[in-house]
């Protein structure tokens, strides 16, 4: 059983660990040779240049400006200085809203902690329940005197905890409602003001029925020209390139070697570089390196040209081009029932849900149930069966000491370690010394990373759960959670501004999941409080807790109906406003060239493929006032279309669909 001294020792160790990590980061980040590790986002944006390119030899590697060492903590105000609108422009809405999860934690738990420490802690401390419990051989520590365990059985003081439970619930719901409203408005404003994106005009179609007279491309073009003549612009067949990934990686490596030898030749044109064609270039015939790798790339291109196969299609709104999970596009329709998501954001949200369930069952419930049972094993063996629920009721809040230690280790120290980036730092210098040949290699060696939503969000939700469960039970845990939210907000804001390079933008589509899991944590806390108070002889006050989960559930239904539609579909009013403004700004806008190559599989995105695609002409020219000819078709059957059709495209087609 942990005592105040044990908690103090653990706190000292973890605080010192966090301070060491932060100090190491503050010193390492100002060294010129680490600049690409701690500011990769600015390099990728092309705004920051390497300090290694100027100055003396020593100043290229070590910061000789001793004044900067005195200002080693200036990264903290710098991380907080950038306003939210600028942060959205810089890093995207996903990153800005992700930070709001930490802000939501602070908004919820700071007032709750103040209220709990000013009311509940004195009520708990001045009771004598644990003195009586010692007579029944129930173990406890001094820290438990601050918890509900110290309230005597059947005491009227439980009314205080009941009133506080209502106050905590109402405040949490109020904060969640305001945040939901704020994030929904941010999402709509972002979609309204952001630049044109291909997914705003695109639907994904899979499982197209086979036609003996037409290819899939011809069949799709014919179907949409006939059935959606006013909205169809163009289409793009998505190829199953899953089997080509190894071949394409080989091609990228070969291209990289070609770039390296071309760069080497430009620096010394007196002698063309040569390479051995044997294993790893250690033996074999010596040939001209540039000619050799050029020929190898041409061979690889011809293979890639012969290996394209169309996937089967299913109709749904297309995700943003950057977040398409290409491997799943080739999954047949019959295999799409628990899986088959085609967007990275959907996959991350599903993984986050599963990780959340894992944390809930294994870390939270598992630690409480098994830990309490083993700690009170002697009492279980010596007392009658009807006394066991009472013992468990007393033991559950005692587990707060374990979670306090868990928060300090997992929350404080690990978050401080996140900003240090020790692993990327080591790997960057190893790659930069041994493997980097070109500037592209150096960019890849930076490894800026991104927000791992599927891993970090469930961890945040565990702290919401712990805070809401223990707020009316053991308020001493709340300051540790507040420190976690504050430190994590500071660290991740710095990382988002200077380090992370997000893979995609979902316009905060994950917020309904965040809201729903906090609501779940709130209901769990209410049910556990009812169970705990029922074992404490609070028969008069416990029934009044029954209304809390019911009210919370209806609050969730209200938020779901009021705000969630903004995260599922773009409001028609907003879409029409954007279309009208776009037509006014660009009356001769032709979206077809813009959309024609938007969804090319990444393995095909090279100059060779792009040049080949540019030779393909569509069914209409770019001139908007030229009429289309008869819809081309080779179909002899009439299964889908009653007759051959003619369509003309108007001078200003609606850009709302593709």
From TrEMBL:
Subcellular location: Membrane
Keyword Cytoplasm: no
Domain CSC1/OSCA1-like cytosolic: 200-308
Name of the protein in its database record: CSC1/OSCA1-like 7TM region domain-containing protein
Annotated family: Belongs to the CSC1 (TC 1.A.17) family.
Region called Disordered, residue ranges: 622-658
Transmembrane segments: 6-28, 108-125, 158-177, 355-374, 462-492, 541-559
Domain CSC1/OSCA1-like N-terminal transmembrane: 7-179
Originating species: Arabis nemorensis
Location of the CSC1/OSCA1-like 7TM region domain: 334-533
Presence of the UniProt keyword Ion transport in the record: yes
Major localization listed first in the record, in broad terms: membrane
